[in-house]
Amino acid sequence: MNLVKESSFAYVDDMFIFGTDQVQVDMTKEFLSSRLSMNDMGRMITPMDSSEKLMPNNDQVVSQLEYSKVIGFLMYVMTCRRPDIAFAVDKPSRYTSNPNT
Question: 27-65: buried (b, 16+ CB within 10 Å) or exposed (e) per residue?
């Protein structure tokens, strides 16, 4: 009787590790690197200043439909290709009920 041991593996095209504590993120990457063959493509920085304050619209009328379409498109891009813009998309998406320029 011949036993053949098959090696199993998983191929992951993209993996993102997010966190507010850079030390913890680095430890997670070290842990995964010790068990998996992986390439670190570097650190992505969110393209929006986190201290930016958005205010509700109290005066100018903006098309809610057009605003919602733009937010929807950005969410699609964020999900499929650009997770680094998640924070920047989240902020204006909170104002879809009363958009402002």
Answer: eeeeeeeeeeeeeeeeeeeeebeeeeeeeeeeeeeeeee
Tell me which residue of 39, 36, 47 sits closest to 83, measured CA to CA.
47
Domain parsing of the chain, residue ranges? 22-93
| pLDDT, the chain, mean | 76
Answer yes or no: are the C-beta atoms of 100 and 56 closer than 8 Å: yes
User: Who's near 55: CB < 8 A, 6+ residues apart?
Assistant: 100
Q: Indicate if the pLDDT at residue 2 is higher than 60.
A: no
